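Throughout our pipeline, every protein is held as a single compact record rather than as scattered files. This encoding replaces a full spatial description with a residue-level series of whole-number codes. The remainder of this section carries one protein's record, kept here as part of the documentation.
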Amino acid sequence: MVINFVLCTIYLSFTQPHSFHVTMTSSFSSGSSSSSSSSKPWIYDVFLSFRGEDTSKNFTDHLYFALKDAGINTFRDDNELRSGEAIQKSRISVILFSRNYANSRWCLEGLVKIMECWRSCRQLVFPIFYDVDPSDVRKQTGSFAEAFAGHEERFVLQTDKGKVATWRMALTEAANLSGWDLRNVADGHEAKFIKKIVGEISRELSSTYLFIAFYPVGINSRVQQLNFLLNAGSNEVCIVGICGMGGIGKTTIAKAMYYELFHSFDGKCFLANVREISQQQNGHVKLQEQLLFDILKTDKIKIGNVDRGMNMIKERLHSRKVLLILDDVDKLDQLQAIAGSRDWFGSGSKIIVTTRDKHVLTVLGADRVYMAREMNDIEALELFSWHAFRTSHPVEDYKVLSEQIVDYCGRLPLALEVIGSFLFGRSIVEWKSALEKLRRIPDDQIQKKLQISFDGLNDDTQKDLFLDISCFFVGMDKEYVLPILNGCDFFADIGLGVLTQRCLVSVNEKNKLIMHDLLRDMGREIVRAQSPNNPGRRSRLWIREEVADVLRRNMGTEATQGMAINLLKGNDMKVDLNVFCNLQNLRLLQLNHVKLAGGCEYLLRKLTWLCWHGFPLSFIPDGLYGENLVAIDMRHSNLRQVKNSKFLLKLKFLNLSHSHYLSRTPDFSRLPHLERLKLKDCRSLVEVHHSIGYLDRLVLVNLKDCKQLRRLPSSFWKSKSIEILYLSGCSKFDELPEDLGDLESLTILNAEDTAIRQVPSTIVRLKNLKDLSLCGCKGSTSATFPSRLRSWFLPRKILNPTNLLPPFHVTSLSLRDCNLSDDALPRDLGSLPTLTNLELDRNSFQSLQRSLILIYL
């Protein structure tokens, strides 16, 4: 049974902040609507609840003007009918409890509404106890007892008594919150008391309100996903990383998550620009001081040095439940200085780290990592439209252009915002010109943001590795590219690991190297900027027109390390091979379907990759052979023979597929480290050199559709390294020798559509064989399989003890279109223990054996 798993990608997006002001009122309308949804924008910073008769002309008046002077937009409203709406649209409620506060039914109704918003909308609530004991408010004693005695005397109906109970509960809840008591602050001096309150409110506003985004495009799913990873309701100290390439919205996600959660924590801190600040003098100390200041709400803390700061964080915060965001971290020492251990923080604390480098999260021991992805097509077009048109969709005449630009941006939020804003209000002609320019020269603002990751790479080998991939190898197989770049002394295995951890390169499910288009363009722009006006002085060339110009005019220099041009077959561009005399540092060369004139006498010693599809000559000039060559790819060549007078000790890949005139292979003794040989569709090939059997690293041989090939040299069948052998389409290949059983590493044998008449009995020795395909082998209608085939498919425990053979572990067996009849198959074929795929269609069966039927039950 085969089970296919479908992996679903969840696309998540962005939101915007709310705006804030302050309102002030002494009343509340009981007929106002219910508490607002958290998705509504805040209109006011502060709602001030007070008993007008007690304080409106003294303390409240002074507090109002102090808030206004502090830059908090204050709105004074004594209209009771508007207070319910004001409460809902305020971010903070300040309740001024005075002696006669509870005498006002409007104050109590307003208080109930405030506490509803506190519970449901994450509104902050701060009580002020003005000439009243907090316990009187909490327990409704003293003057509050007298007020409630009057209320209960007036209210005799059961519904009214329920309302009184609600008032009592609201008073108790509010009085239990952290606030200010005039008697215990500033020795009762009102002016100092008000200054203290304004300072605390201002600090709370500045630490709470984070600008998130100008235009929201569906933040909820992203926040929900991250909230799930945080396990926000648990008591564990949880560390979650948000990882992704630059410009993908990591900071936006973190801000939205902070805004979602901050109300549930004793202390909260959003440390922005950690990477940038840490590079300043005493940067780590500054970050530590900011953390303690934001959470402890005390005067500016002076630490002195990092070690002292680490101890102070642990001593002062170990019992506090905190929410800490560390934004844009790129080094482990930054994390160690600020959040070095979970026991530095109290139970239930949550730490979110945004980074481009997944490795720092691994070393830190993050509990979970959220990989930020680019937006989906619908979200990307909407975000772009908000910036380009100030609407949620493109203007009709601009729709096609908008889709093209969104495609160019690769659904990266940063690019959508920058380019959308740049194009706002411009004509279609300007849009087309801008898009054409962007395809050649990336936007500088986007380039600088993305290049931060490149600049942060550890050394030049990693930077060269990234530039080579971005210019030449995007979309190619990882196992093909890494040996080439290792041949350039770039330590590519560890280097690719670093690039992957830093979200600059990734490897897809097909093992291909992939890179976001804008990251690719960023790398290419770094190279272009090396010499904007003279391509011949750049380290890498990949633009067709520029490469052609350099070759035609012989403008190459020693600065050129890589060159690639991919022309269509039949192009008449001609190159004199002597142009390479000036390119002695050339490591990577691709000249697909470029024609030649003259010869090359100067050896390209540093060349590691030679890709020349459609190579026009019948032989390879000695000048193109270099001792550092790792891969030669000359598909569709005119080669008739491959003679090499030099040992190519580093060559691992040789691909001469579709070379229709090639009749014989090279002498492999001069290619001792060859690992992969591809000669697919070499229609004239009649002989494979006997030295192939002595290649002890050769793992793949592809001879598909070599229609003149009848057999392989006897030495080949002695190989201990061959894992994959393709013979399909070799219509004259008629024999698998008994030595087949000596290919002990063979895992895949594909011999479809050959003339093979007999499968040798020694195949039972191939204990690693997983995939066997003999489809279309019609060399014999009755003797395709040996008499002992029956024993291949039996587990070890069933075999005759006197003739033990290893069990046959084939998982895929293809016998389609082989002219097989009922008696051509072994009776116990269905007993194969590992078989998951069996193809028997287009044969001459009258019925299926019972053992075969059982396979499908």
